[in-house]
Amino acid sequence: MSDASVRRRFSDGTTADDLKAYMAPFVERLGYRLNTDEGFVDAVLASELEILAETGDVYCPCRIRTGDAKADVAIICPCIAFHMDEFAALRKCWCGLFIRTDVEDGSSLEGVIETTSGPVDVRVAAYDDLADGQVRHVKIGKRDIALARAAGEYFALSNVCRHAFAPLAEGFMDGSQLMCPWHGWRYDVRDGSTDHPDADVRTYPVTVRDGEVFLRVEL
Ligand code: SF4
Ligand code: FES
Hints:
- There is one protein chain.
- The two termini are 25 Å apart.
- The longest helix has 18 residues, at 38-55.
- It is built from 5 helices and 12 strands.
- It has 219 residues and is of the alpha+beta class.
- Residues 161, 163-164, 166, 180, 182-185 line the site of FE2/S2 (inorganic) cluster.
- Iron/sulfur cluster binds next to loops.
């Protein structure tokens, strides 16, 4: 989104409802929605409207602007596309104006969080979401991951077959083996190994806590 397009879209008379109407479908395509706490949303948007009046753009109220339009474009709200990995891990944008669509109550996710680094656990499923022998595609930021359940345990490995890049999550489970849907290469979901030379795929640590499944990823 260029600065010019923001200025055209938001006039002096822009209201919080205008921002919501613009933002909601935009972030929905990215897997987010406005926080369920309407009072909190209105407070954040009131700040954004003040910034709009001051600068002509809807910059994030919880980020520091540099004054360089090219650098600051990454904090024009909604900024989700610029920070996919961090927000997927947090399950919200920095201040919690937007939450992942599977979060039922966003009030616990309010408040500014500084940029995260290091390993984080990302919730990807409820334990009962998959039965043994089922696989699901999970996207965390730019990572394409196949989440599989075998013998009551969850495993996560790259979704991309090393032969011709087929999506492994569309393949078939045979015990702990995941068969590629295109030409049948087999990967062991426990360690990503295959009997083709130099073709193992990476795996991700998985934990199950309180009936929820988490993947550990590095930010
Ligand atoms: S962190 Fe949230 S409030 Fe701030 S710009 Fe990004 S989406 Fe908007
Ligand atoms: S693309 Fe996976 S076996 Fe060919």
